[in-house]
Amino acid sequence: MKKIIFVLLGLVVSLSLTIPAFAHFQMIYTPECALEKGGKIDLKLVFTHPFEAGHTMDMGKPEQFFVVRSRGENEPKKTDLLQTLKPITWTSLTNSGKAWETEYSARGGDHIFCLIPEPYWEPADSFYIKQNTKVIVNVGGEPGKWMEPVGLPTEIVPLSKPYDRWTGNVFQGVVMLNGKPVPGAEIEIEYMNHKPLLDKNAFAKEAAVEAPQDAFVLQTIFADANGVFTFGIPRAGWWGFAALDLDPDYTYKDKKCSRDAVIWIKAVDMK
Ligand SMILES: [Cu+2]
Questions:
Q1: In which domain, by residue range, is 148 found?
Q2: Does the pTM of the predicted model rise above 0.90?
């Protein structure tokens, strides 16, 4: 009996080691998405596994990093932030990886931060991954054009205001490729389960929740025939949504490149 248990345990261990490195998540992290007042905010660009604070991949120099600011009905204004990025090393629970940071002076209205990263070569999968990522920060409650596409090649466009979600609300978005909805898109969802420590450029060791089984680390949903997805938010904090491989024939340097779209939202408890 004991022997059988050991064999089974060995099998479990070896299986968990051979699981492909899925659930890579591009983060644009800032502590708050709904600020009362304007001021300097920190932004960290990290390519990692947020639920487990797991393996952090080395990011190359991003192709683009910019913000689109809008206020009321005013025409949105785009500002390039690429030259403001400084390299950092981000430490996860298992390793360290190359990442980027900047500081930005946020003012009233919506700020849509957008990252187009350099494609990342994933040796475990033998393809490139390119996760175009958005996060929306509002100052003062004055809405802008958070609901409008920015025009990224792959993009999740929110149908719910991304910075006014209570815990228990749903979040809805449309998955887009080149401005057109992607019917049936597959979306992976992760909770930011370890607090990012801004001064240490690291994840906190303590986890907020424990996954009862591996399936819960990374949740999966699909968009409907109109490219629309819906997710009920079970807990306060940051949630990442990654729509995967939206352009299956896309290649980079003659290799397959998974073109993904990521958005982060933060929910708040009613209390
Ligand atoms: Cu991964």
A1: 21-267
A2: yes
What does each of the 271 residues of the chain score in pLDDT, given as a tens digit?
Answer: 555 555 555 444 444 444 445 689 999 999 999 999 999 999 999 999 999 999 999 999 999 999 999 999 889 999 999 999 999 999 999 999 999 999 999 999 999 999 999 999 999 989 999 999 999 999 999 999 999 999 999 999 999 999 999 999 999 999 999 999 999 999 999 999 999 999 999 999 999 999 999 999 999 999 999 999 999 999 999 999 999 999 999 999 999 999 999 999 999 999 9
Residue 196 Cα to ligand 1 middle (Å): 18
Distance 47 CA to ligand 1 centre (A): 9
Number of domains in the chain: 1
Closest listed residue to residue 54, CA positions, set 104, 97, 18: 97
CA gap 178, 151 in Å, rounded: 7
Sign of the Cα pseudo-torsion (197, 155, 97, 21, in order): positive
Q: Tell me how far the alpha carbon of residue 168 lies from the centroid of ligand 1, in angstroms.
A: 27
Let me know if residue 14 belongs to a domain.
no
Tell me, in angstroms, the distance from the centre of ligand 1 to residue 19's CA.
10
In a domain, 9, yes or no: no
